[in-house]
Amino acid sequence: MSQDWLLKVDNLSVRFQSRGGDAHAVEGVSFEIQRGETLALVGETGCGKSVTARSILRLVPEPPGKYVAGSIKLNVEGKGVVDILSASTKEVMAIRGERISMIFQDPGKALNPSLTIGSQLAEVFGQHRVEMILESAGIEPARASRAEKRIAKQRASFVQLRFFQLTRRSKAAALQKSIDDAVARSLADTGIPNPRKIMKSYPHELSGGMKQRVMIAQALACDPDLLIADEPTTALDVTIQARILELIQDMQKRRGMAVLYITHDLSIVREFADRIAVMYAGHIVETGPAQEVLANPQHPYTNGLLGAIPHRRTPRGQLAAIPGSVPQLIDPPEQCHFASRCQWAAEACLGHVPQLHTIQPNRKVACFRFEEAESLSVAKTDMPIPAEISGEARR
After folding, report:
1. How far apart are the C-alpha atoms of 350 and 297, rounded to whole Å?
2. Helix H or strand E segment including 117
């Protein structure tokens, strides 16, 4: 394992209680993310990508969810390694937004409709940047009064502000200006025009693309080490998708953060990811450098995903699809979960769950027939990328 790792997920298993039994949403998942890199976690809907992402921030509701096994370790520079699953609630709260942030699929649902944009971003600074707010307002953090700290944390009530002495009210105004300035800078960094006007707006007054930029500003407000982007462009049209992806990539380069990109769309991974982890039915089935996995996939499921991408040469009405359906996750059998959909399944696939094997430096695959992958492969090395994503439309 590299010494420069930022996040290490080891043998993570998450299950959800249901009337029919426990659903094995995530089973034995392991991967690591290096500082500054982009890892794409790829798979179809329901494969466990989002549960894995939420587990990193310990956001899986308990119950019905439960962490059955594994560890999620964050390598905090200068402070050592923290196991998120065994850390206290206070420690996890300090990590969320500060060290690890997340952009959710639908910004319309993630933003609070009853609060202004400015109020929602101010909460982030109030949680993690109290000293910065105090210093910006000309107040020494060590000498700040309890009331001043409450204002900086955005927890002061109207009654508290109403009965401040005049001198204190002037400090309250300075504190509020400091917070507003920080929020405006965060919005401006994501390319939002007229940020002070947007601060006073409510989510329903903004377009989908603008709301997603607000979510990015909120996630990056405290310069996290890791940004989790959970299908951040799903609800947007293709042109806006490209702009949002470019924005995330640009912010990553400027800030040097790592990105965990959750997606079901392999066509956009080549340009934005350093490495890929392919997930199916709660298991990671293949990992490796993005270009190598896309050019020479070793797992039949990865092959199927690539083969299903339409391109200009695809005959009308002849879209490829992976046959069958995703297996039941409640009490799954001890076998390869892709066996029922795999045309190359052998006897060994029906009696055991394949584990990830290292087949090349930096490449792993969970398949009993990976040595035959060259002859089984149906994917093309010249996988087409939509013009809107590849950059052709932007030139």
Report:
1. 22
2. helix 117-128
Which has the closest alpha carbon to 39: 224, 226, 218?
226
3-class secondary-structure state, position 243: helix
Amino acid symbol at 202: Y
- Tell me the DSSP string of 31-98: EEEETT-EEEEE--TTSSHHHHHHHHTT-S-TTTEEEEEEEEEEEETTTEEEETTTS-HHHHHHHBTT
Can you tell me the distance from the alpha carbon of 364 to that of 343, in angstroms, rounded to the nearest whole number?
Answer: 21
Sequence-separated (6 or more) residues with CB below 8 Å from residue 364: 286, 287, 288, 356, 357, 358
In this predicted model, what pLDDT tens digit does every residue of 76-129 receive, in sequence order? 887 789 999 999 998 998 898 889 999 988 778 888 899 899 888 888 877 766
Residue with tokens 């790792």: 5
DSSP secondary structure of 118-149:
HHHHHHHHHHH-HHHHHHHTT--GGG--HHHH
- pTM (two decimals): 0.82
User: In angstroms, rounded to a whole number, what is the distance separating the alpha carbons of residues 54 and 46?
Assistant: 14
185-220: string of b/e by CB count within 10 Å (b at 16+)? ebbebbbbeebeebbeeebeebebbbbbbbbbbbbb
The number of beta carbons lying within 10 Å of the beta carbon of residue 62 is: 11
Number of CB atoms found within 10 A of residue 272's CB = 19
